UniProtKB/TrEMBL annotation:
Membrane disposition: Multi-pass membrane protein
Keyword terms of this UniProt record: Cell inner membrane, Cell membrane, Membrane, Transmembrane, Transmembrane helix
Protein name: Inner membrane-spanning protein YciB
Keyword RNA-binding attached: no
Main location group: membrane
Residue intervals passing through the bilayer: 12-29, 41-62, 74-90, 102-122, 143-161, 167-184
InterPro entries: YciB
Recorded family membership: Belongs to the YciB family.
UniProt lineage: Bacteria, Pseudomonadati, Pseudomonadota, Alphaproteobacteria, Rhodobacterales
Compartments it resides in: Cell inner membrane
Main function: Plays a role in cell envelope biogenesis, maintenance of cell envelope integrity and membrane homeostasis.
Taxonomy, superkingdom: Bacteria
C-alpha cells in the first residue's frame, strides 16, 4: 500500500499525543485511589487503562491518513494492548513497566538476526529518511542494535530500582531523548556513507 502525505505536525501529534496525555494524566491522578467493582486501583492503573484505547485510536487515525503502519508501530501497538491489559486486569503496574524492555529486546534481536544474515533490516524501515550505502547501513544497524539492548537494560534497572514517578518521567522523556541524541551523534556516519557521494565522479 502506498504512503499518503500527511502534515508533519499532525503526524507528530498522533505519535506523541497519547504519550504526553499519559504523562499529564499520571501527574494528575498519581496520588488517587479509585474503587471500581469493589477493587482498589491506583492512579497509574487507571491512567494505563485509559491510555490503551487513546493510543489505538491515534494509531488507527495515523493508519487511515497515511495508508501505512510500520512493523515497529504494529508490534508496539500489540505489546501495549497485551501488557497494558495485563496490568489493568491483574491490577499490577509491573507488566506495563516491562513493555519497553520487551519492545527494545524484540527490535534489537530482530536487527541482530538480520546482521547475522548479512542484511540491514533497519534499512527497510528508514531508507526513505536517509539513503546510505550498504556499509553505512550495516554500521548504523549494529549501533542501533546495541542502543536497543542498552535501553532494554536501562528500563529494567529504572523500573525495578526507582519510583513509579521516576519511571514515568524516564519513559516519557528519557527514552525519546536517548534515541534523538543517538541519531544526532551519528551525523558523521551519515555524511561519510551518504548515497549522494556516488554522484561525485571521484567517489567509489
Amino acid at each position: 500500500m502506498s504512503h499518503k502525505p500527511i502534515n508533519p505536525g499532525l503526524k507528530t501529534a498522533l505519535e506523541m499525543g497519547p504519550i504526553l496525555a499519559f504523562f499529564g494524566a499520571y501527574l494528575w491522578l498519581k496520588d488517587r485511589i479509585f474503587v471500581i467493582g469493589g477493587t482498589e486501583y491506583e492512579g497509574f492503573i487507571v491512567v494505563t487503562a485509559a491510555f490503551i484505547p487513546v493510543f489505538l485510536i491515534a494509531t488507527g487515525v495515523l493508519w487511515k491518513l497515511t495508508g501505512h503502519l510500520s512493523r515497529m508501530q504494529a508490534v508496539t501497538a500489540v505489546l501495549i494492548v497485551v501488557f497494558g491489559g495485563l496490568s489493568v486486569w491483574l491490577n499490577d503496574e509491573r507488566f506495563f513497566k516491562m513493555k519497553p524492555t520487551l519492545i527494545y529486546l524484540l527490535f534489537g534481536t530482530t536487527l541482530a538476526i538480520g546482521l547475522m544474515r548479512g542484511e540491514s533490516w533497519l534499512r527497510s524501515v528508514m531508507e526513505g529518511l536517509m539513503p546510505l550505502k550498504h556499509q553505512g547501513w550495516m554500521i548504523l544497524t549494529r549501533r542501533v542494535t546495541m542502543l536497543f539492548f542498552g535501553l532494554a537494560v536501562l528500563n529494567e534497572v529504572i523500573w525495578r530500582t526507582m519510583s513509579t514517578e521516576t519511571w514515568v518521567y524516564f519513559k516519557t522523556f528519557g527514552l525519546t531523548a536517548a534515541i534523538f541524541l543517538f541519531f544526532i551523534s551519528q551525523s558523521g556516519l551519515f555524511k561519510a556513507y551518504s548515497i549522494e557521494d556516488d554522484k561525485d565522479p571521484g567517489a567509489q
